[in-house]
Specification:
By secondary structure, this protein is mainly β. It is built from no helices and 15 strands. The N and C termini lie far apart (about 45 Å).
């Protein structure tokens, strides 16, 4: 049975709405900081939440890995075009709050292992933590998505303190950018239907997985309210 993910982030129904009218330019999504449009100068932000990687094709049906994450990156609005962001550092995926010990919670991914670890890598797969993934805001109907490319996630099955086997998921995903109202109810990215799938490296799309869950975003220095809207 597919595991249902419950996280302590209250979904907010306020979304950035834009319209493309005949004869007029389509609105372009941008990042905002405390309600004002961000400039071209990068703004340091932090993100945290709980995400699951759930197998949807190939592999063991319903297999998943669930981890708590913490990330530091930047957002900015170039002088032209949509807003962009850069996940500079993503901390090692931590233990899920409902589990004890180290590693992430998993089912049917590392059945014989003592622990399941998930580590983000650069697009070339040569270094972890300091990432070069791409990201740009895109309109999606009446909402906005944050298209993240170059994703490279390595799942290690650890047994007797050594890596017994590994799986690497690669690709792109586009979570919804949903609005917050304060530091207590911040804006967040939500992975749900339409966010896209990752695939096992080298599988040619034979084995794929969805990301499910959400991460909340705030300014790094003063918990500034981070949102996106179309202008």
């Amino acid at each position: 049975m597919k595991k249902k993910l419950v996280i302590g982030l209250a979904p907010l129904l306020v979304t950035a709405v834009f319209a493309a009218r005949p004869g007029t330019a389509q609105a372009v999504p941008h990042w905002t900081v405390n309600g004002s449009l961000a400039t071209s100068a990068p703004v340091l932000v932090k993100a945290s939440g709980v995400l699951s990687l759930v197998v949807v094709k190939g592999g063991v049906p319903g297999a998943f890995v669930t981890c708590a994450i913490a990330e530091v990156g930047t957002i900015n609005n170039p002088t032209s075009g949509a807003g962009v962001d850069a996940p500079l550092v993503m901390f090692a995926f931590a233990a899920h709050p409902t589990t004890s010990g180290l590693g992430c919670e998993s089912q049917s991914v590392c059945p014989a292992a003592d622990r399941t670890d998930v580590t983000p890598y650069s697009t070339a797969g040569t270094s972890s933590y300091f990432l070069d993934w791409g990201s740009i805001l895109e309109p999606s109907g009446a909402q906005i998505r944050d298209k993240i490319t170059g994703i490279n996630l390595k799942i290690d099955c650890v047994k007797n303190a050594a890596i017994d086997s590994s799986i690497i998921f690669v690709g792109a995903t586009a979570p919804l950018c949903l609005h917050g109202t304060s530091a207590l109810h911040p804006g967040f990215l939500e992975w749900a239907a339409g966010s896209g799938e990752l695939e096992v490296q080298g599988s040619g799309g034979a084995v794929t997985a969805d990301i499910e869950g959400a991460v909340q975003m705030l300014g790094y220095e003063e918990n500034e309210l981070i949102n996106c809207r179309s202008t």
